[in-house]
């Protein structure tokens, strides 16, 4: 492809993207294809000779789009938002266009340094404790990880390394593997599946403790588990508290959990993957009371802050622990002397992979082109739309609210046996008109309705509710 073809194809691709996004609400949100559909329409071999680029763009509409679930549709109301905005897309485009891989500072100083700076911006926007800022006097700082899952695994591995070292320093006669085999992690049974996965991948026993009636991890439950495990010879090492659980968007109380972790010398990681974005609005910061007792935090701009996947912010109170746990030396990786300057770290020592993209660009573009006030408006609008949806549900006596609207999430169900709600969900999904997903809390199955799309408005909520309630007529007609 020569530069002129590149320019033309890029223009066509941008036009296509804009047309797609601006009309995405007209498409059925869920695809109507059978598993393996693509295999029947894409050639079995790569072309022997170059294709003409003009043939490729039409293939997107004909072959790829039928197999796309439209995350940006106002009728996509499942999971949590997949961040998306034009500034972010342009940032990503430039990241690919520049094509640097910045695992060491020298491999593109701007790639590393912009990341340090924008994570400081973001930490300040959220009013995180000063110790998480590179600009503070302490050894804290932030990095963009690929995902929340990776951030939590990284935190677990650091906690494991730190505590093992500490125990060995106190008693060098102990066996390292024996210590590691006794370490144990805790979280709530409502925490995201990635917490359990981090335990699996990091080879640490993990207890998922029972939530209270509001879906939160309670201090007394944690304390009982710690006491019991210590009596059984285990060593409490790591706690993940969640601010905004995936199921019902519940908030663990850090001001209760934090002091326990401090007293017991346990690493406290805070997973605010989704709801952390709301802390850019001062009125929601009360939900993170106690955050000053944490050791690390993750929040996903790629969920609720309009940044395209992948962009997961991760902050650590003392970056020396991450460097101690993750540094591996090879002569070919050494391109300057010791690198510990807070504005110019070698990020390969902070993460699992070696290669890394210039992800800070899309975060930078999004923060600059929306501004803090633009992002606050966006968050507040989503929260008010969720409250509006809740009022619609409450008006229909066939339904009950399982947990009141929390951030952009509303959990509701049909009154009566779970089967009614499951049947309703099934026929809604078959219609492909709206995408909602299910949750379970205690004995109750429910439907999660989440305000996801950047372009959602009140009419879309009305339309969504109309689709849901008309399908409910099939299960249980409204009484006149
Ligand atoms: N934590 C919470 C509360 C989540 O809701 C999710 C995903 O939905 C995650 C962590 C995992 O994030 P990621 O998909 O970036 O790994």
UniProtKB/TrEMBL annotation:
Q: Which family does it belong to?
A: Belongs to the group II decarboxylase family.
Alphabetical GO biological process terms: amino acid metabolic process; carboxylic acid metabolic process; catecholamine metabolic process
| GO CC annotation terms, alphabetical | cytoplasm
- This chain's protein is named Uncharacterized protein
Q: Which residues carry this modification: N6-(pyridoxal phosphate)lysine?
A: 303
Keywords, A to Z, come to: Lyase, Pyridoxal phosphate
Which metal ions or organic cofactors does this protein require, according to UniProt? pyridoxal 5'-phosphate
């Amino acid at each position: 492809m020569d530069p002129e073809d590149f320019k033309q194809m890029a223009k066509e691709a941008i036009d296509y993207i804009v047309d797609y996004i601006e009309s995405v609400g007209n498409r059925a949100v869920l695809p109507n294809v059978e598993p393996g559909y693509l295999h029947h329409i894409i050639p079995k071999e790569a072309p022997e000779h170059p294709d003409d680029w003009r043939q490729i763009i039409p293939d997107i509409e004909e072959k790829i789009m039928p197999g796309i679930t439209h995350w940006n549709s106002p009728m996509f109301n499942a999971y949590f938002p997949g961040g998306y905005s034009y500034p972010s897309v342009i940032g990503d485009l430039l990241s690919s266009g520049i094509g640097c891989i910045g695992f060491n500072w020298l491999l593109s100083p701007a790639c590393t340094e912009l990341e340090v700076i924008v994570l400081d911006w973001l930490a300040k926007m959220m009013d995180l404790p000063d110790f998480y800022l590179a600009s503070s006097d302490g050894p804290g700082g932030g990095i963009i990880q690929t995902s929340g899952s990776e951030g939590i695994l990284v935190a677990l591995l650091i906690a494991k390394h730190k505590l093992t070292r500490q125990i060995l320093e106190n008693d060098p006669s102990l066996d390292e593997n024996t210590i590691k085999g006794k370490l144990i992690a805790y979280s709530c049974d409502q925490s995201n599946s990635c917490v359990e996965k981090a335990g699996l991948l990091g080879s640490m026993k993990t207890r998922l403790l029972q939530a209270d009636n509001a879906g939160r991890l309670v201090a007394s439950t944690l304390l009982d588990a710690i006491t019991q495990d210590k009596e059984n010879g285990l060593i409490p090492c790591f706690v993940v508290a969640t601010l905004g659980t995936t199921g019902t968007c519940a908030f663990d109380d850090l001001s209760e959990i934090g002091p326990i972790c401090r007293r017991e010398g346990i690493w406290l990681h805070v997973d605010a993957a989704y709801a952390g974005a709301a802390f850019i609005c001062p009125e929601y910061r009360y939900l993170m009371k106690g955050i000053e007792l944490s050791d690390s935090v993750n929040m996903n701009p790629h969920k609720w802050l309009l940044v395209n996947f992948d962009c997961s912010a991760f902050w650590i109170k003392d970056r020396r622990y991450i460097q101690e746990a993750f540094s591996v030396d090879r002569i070919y990786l050494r391109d300057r002397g010791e690198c510990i300057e807070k504005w110019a770290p070698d990020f390969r020592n902070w993460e699992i992979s070696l290669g890394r993209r210039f992800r800070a660009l899309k975060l930078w573009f999004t923060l600059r082109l929306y501004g803090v006030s633009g992002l606050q408006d966006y968050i507040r609008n989503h929260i008010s739309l969720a409250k509006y949806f809740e009022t619609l549900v409450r008006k229909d006596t066939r339904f009950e609210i399982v947990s009141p609207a929390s951030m952009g999430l509303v959990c509701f169900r049909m009154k009566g046996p779970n089967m009614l709600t499951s049947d309703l969900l099934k026929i809604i999904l078959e219609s492909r008109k709206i995408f909602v997903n299910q949750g379970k809390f205690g004995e109750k199955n429910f439907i999660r309705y989440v305000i996801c799309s950047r372009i959602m408005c009140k009419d879309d909520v009305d339309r969504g509710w109309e689709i849901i309630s008309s399908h409910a007529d099939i299960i249980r007609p409204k009484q006149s």
